[in-house]
């Protein structure tokens, strides 16, 4: 397993669950010095980014980019795929495609669909909102597939979105979409709220689990709560998971200390 953290790209001033402080270059230097294998790059609009600069800084600091994250497309700009507003959908699709192009450029990083998916309860104008979601995310997934990019669908707890809350829902959705480059990103924070058993769900997800967000039960750095990380890592090893365990946590007591405590914990538990 490899270690990562969520870090803002140069076009994102603040991410509520992103770590490290300083300029983009300083953050990359810190991630490398701490010993992380890679960073999840949080972006807002690839059109405003110097792609070559981003790639160069990450390469210089020997950091992989397992994933480009889209949370701020929704968080900052309100863009989402499942919406009754056709113009908003058009803008969300175009921006998502731009993020996929960037991910392809960054050595085929994956791209997540979390809050970017939107909500089913906004679609009162259609009889089957789930089918609309399947169709729209299938289109995004096919666009990504043609560019060698995997889309990771993240089950998210009921207080943030209203569909695909747990692994079981996620696996149903994957089956309905039916594209091999659509997988799951499993976030321990959401799983602790929505999945009856984190161990059983990780095992059930098996090869469909492409990326893992780690956090303790209180969404702080691992070790700050009561998550059974030994059970988590044992189960991931048993499923032959070789992807990233990547910190998406509240930046407390401060973003740099949270990152340092995360890697210290992971070193002990993954060795
Ligand atoms: C994004 O990965 C996530 O987990 C969400 O809770 C952010 O709102
Ligand atoms: Mn997450």
Describe the structure.
The chain is of the alpha/beta class and 271 residues long. The protein has a single domain (2-270), classed as Divalent-metal-dependent TIM barrel enzymes (TIM Barrel), CATH 3.20.20.150. The chain contains 10 helices and 8 strands. It has an 8-stranded parallel barrel with strand order 1-2-3-4-5-6-7-8, surrounded by 6 helices. β1, α1 (24-34) and β2 form a beta-alpha-beta unit. α8 (198-205) runs parallel beside α9. The protein is globular and about 50 Å long. Manganese (II) ion (MN) is lined by residues 154, 187, 213, 248.
Key features?
271 residues; 15% strand; 8-stranded parallel beta barrel; globular; TIM Barrel; binds L-Erythrulose; alpha/beta; binds manganese (II) ion
**Overall number of strands:** 8
Q: Which structural class matches the secondary elements?
A: alpha/beta
Bound molecules: L-Erythrulose, manganese (II) ion
Q: Any idea of the CATH topology? A: TIM Barrel
Shape: globular
The ordered string of helix (H) and strand (E) elements is: EHEHEHHEHEHEHHEHEH
Q: What is the architecture at the second tier of CATH? A: Alpha-Beta Barrel
Helix content: 40-55%
Number of domains: 1
Summarize the biggest pleated sheet: 8 strands, parallel, barrel
CATH superfamily: Divalent-metal-dependent TIM barrel enzymes
End-to-end gap: 10 Å
Radius of gyration: 17 Å
Top CATH class: Alpha Beta
Enumerate how many helices there are, as a single number. 10
